[in-house]
Write a structure and sequence with these properties.
The complex is a heterodimer of chains A (about 325) and B (about 525). By secondary structure, chain A is an all-alpha fold. Chain A has 2 domains: about 5-55, no CATH class; about 80-315, Orthogonal Bundle (MetI-like fold), CATH 1.10.3720.10. Chain A has helices at about 1-35, 35-55, 70-75, 80-90, 90-110, 110-125, 125-140, 145-155, 160-170, 180-210, 215-220, 225-235, 240-250, 260-265, 270-275, 275-285, 290-315. Chain A is flat and about 65 Å long. Chain B has about 525 residues and is an alpha/beta fold. Chain B folds into 2 domains: about 45-170 and about 340-425, 3-Layer(aba) Sandwich (D-Maltodextrin-Binding Protein, domain 2); about 175-340 and about 450-455, Periplasmic binding protein-like II (D-Maltodextrin-Binding Protein, domain 2). In chain B, about 50% of the residues lie in helices and about 15% in strands. Chain B has helices at about 1-50, 70-80, 95-105, 115-120, 125, 135-140, 150-155, 180-185, 195-205, 230-235, 255-270, 285-290, 305-315, 355-370, 375-380, 400-405, 420, 430-445, 460-480, 485-514, and strands spanning about 55-60, 80-90, 110, 165, 175-180, 215-220, 245, 250, 295-300, 320-325, 335-340, 345-350, 390, 395, 425, 450. In chain B, strand 7 (about 245) and strand 8 (about 250) form a beta hairpin. In chain B, helix 2 runs antiparallel to helix 15 and helix 19 packs antiparallel against helix 20. The termini of chain B are far apart. The chains are: A mainly alpha (about 325), B alpha/beta (about 525). Chains A and B meet through helix 2 and helix 16 of A and helix 1, helix 3 and helix 19 of B.
Amino acid sequence: MSSIVVPKLKAKKKLSAVDRKRRRSELWRRIKRNKMIYLMILPGIIYFLVYRYLPMYGLIISFQDYKPYLGITGSPWVGFTHFERLFTSPEFWTIFRNTLILFALQIFVYFPIPIIISLMLNEVRHSLYKRGIQTLIYIPHFMSWVVIVSISFVMLTLDGGIINSVLESLGFTKINFLMSAEWFRPIYIIQVIWREAGWGTIVFLAAITAVDPQLYEAAKIDGANRFRQIWHITLPAIRSVIIVLLILKIGNVLELGFEHVYLLLNASNRNVGEIFDTYVYVAGLQQGQFSYSAAVGFFKGVVGLIMVVIANRLAKAFNEEGIY
Amino acid sequence: MMLSCRKFVMGLMFVMLAMILLACNNESASSNEVEGGNDEDQSMDVGEGDQEPFAFTIMANLHTPEVPAETVLEEIEQLTNTEIEIQWVPDNNYEDRLNTAFATNTLPEAVFLKNQSTFIQFRDAIQDGQFWELDPYLDQFENLQKLKDNVQDNTRVDGKLYTLYQGRPLSRQGIIYRKDWADYLGLEAPTTTEEFFEMARAFTEDDPNQSGSDNTFGITDRNDLIYGAFKTIASWFNTPNNWGEREGELLPEFMFDEYFETMEYFKALHENGYINQDFPVTSKVDQQEFFKNGSAGIYIGSMGDVVSIYSDAVTINPDVELDVHNYVEGPTGEYGIWSIPGYGNLVMFPKSSVETEEELLKILGFFDQMMTPEVMNYAYWGIEDVHYEVIDGQALPVDDTALLDREVRPYQAIEVGEAETNGRYEGYFDYEPKAKSEDLFIDNENYLIEDPTVPLYSETFTRDGARLEQIITDATYQYILGQIDQAGFDAAVENWKSQGGQQIIDEFNENYSN
């Protein structure tokens, strides 16, 4: 019995080895055949290796008590101490909640706006007027957050800010916009919209121009008005673009704009405004707790990864392409 | 046709690849140069003797918006036979750069630290032997020995000296106010906190600028509880300086009633509109602007700033008159003013970049030469008859502040010692309030409130002190703005204690009683 079984097994092994070999050689042949195309993605691969994967080596320090002069190789290992400290610190849930709320604002409030704007722009008949507006709304994207926050500061301050002056002259009481927890989130999202909404229309406008004009003509003959045309033609046509961008946006879940939030923070809104990015900056760069802040950053990255996977699954569930 | 097209594409690909590889190469080569090149230069210098200028790098704070011209630096280099590169880092984000450079092991040969709290952060690294200890070498340097012992003692770590200090008067805090407004309203310089409150009220409500409308307020303050108005006013109320003793135990300032009284006082100033309503988010530039443009009449901070404030204010309003004042009694009838430990900045020498004793001696040799009047006058005042003139053995800077900012003032950041020890000219001030402020610095020395924890060490404070302080800073602002009440403030103090504050108290007291 056994004498029969053994050769069988061997044969199977041999086969799979040959199989693998063949597959590999086939891959090589394919690479050789398309070497130009493979060469073309080389810069991209190098970029990702050097700037995205190599730095991950540094994550090691979140499991160490990192001392710069000892380096990564010499610093003592401390296991999950820094993660324990993060998860047990009373600030953790505040920061986590703040991060998620700002993220939700980005997705539910900010994200639809560029789509609406591009639909509206698409309906503009006068092409010079349309292009003029398009150009104008790109401009804020090129301003730094420092400028934008400073402008809002000058407008919102209690000490002679224009908005409070207007409120006062109309007989309302002044509103403490800057030093209040309630106003932090509205100010944050309004600034995001002001700066990014115009820029965000580019991709959607490009997608809309790709829609076959015959569809509109057909719809018109069927008696569809402009709203019907948007609803039944334009939106479905750019649906996959919307979903890909949404997934990408979710992937950046915890990139809420460090500079922006940091500039807005003060004593009165820290409770609602402190997010992972600002926390990492203060703990790591200002107070020199390198390992701890690396642990916080690591955690943030893991959350981001989970969100992308979930979003992609959802996209697939709705029969869309997803990003992988 | 097809072939030539393919050739073209192939050629293009090669060019691109070559460019990428070259770029990578260049990058690593140039970074090598930055890291290794300096060291090589130096070892070469050591080999070739003292004729070649000695090259090294200093990291220092930049207080002006722009990196200065090198006119003055060239003079210094010539006198000291050195080739100095200064890494200017804006003072606002000095901590980040310091920590980043430290984390990546790229600190230069001589590193200025900014202030006492950054020094405390580096204590761990100092104890670990990352910086050169200076005691064994200082007796070779005649001029460095002149540095004051009592200030040096404030910078010792476990009894050892690692730094050279940059001297500062112990307390420069006081009031700068609009003399013309006070005269018009018939007010004298305030000597009690009540009179001060009255002045703030009158400057707000009694139309001190005779404009007929309500467009002024009393005090202009900024987002800084320490160098802004708060800590100075707290001193008038006799609040301890950071830490104080009660019944033999050291406790942080915010556990004292005096601190609370100061908050109440501020709250009243704020509620009545006698202080800018957004002061917790006001920058120093904006704060001074309110004073310069005639919106506010009282500025609390370093009294020496009166010159720069005046020179700007007078361009807006030629009739402006300023004065300085220090003595304000609190409710107990005593005046007190917080002090710094005698130094403003410190310079240290990391072992990672200064690799040999020989190099260290050369760098110390440079600072030794810096501490002679010939060299220090260049660093502090600039070039005689270009940037300043000498009157009665004192230096009078030229009126062109833009020129001074561009060519001279930044180099004051690399001073070591003070006029007393490095022999540079004292300033000659033809602007009377400035001369008065110099006298008041000396007067302040009679009323100093010192920080008892300066010579003490607490591990928790070194590690978490800055983070914990945020809790109290935030709570203090929130109390002043009326966003929390006393219970809320007490809760913040409890929070501070539970997150490590209690440990800090224990550790300091253990050191204190010993």
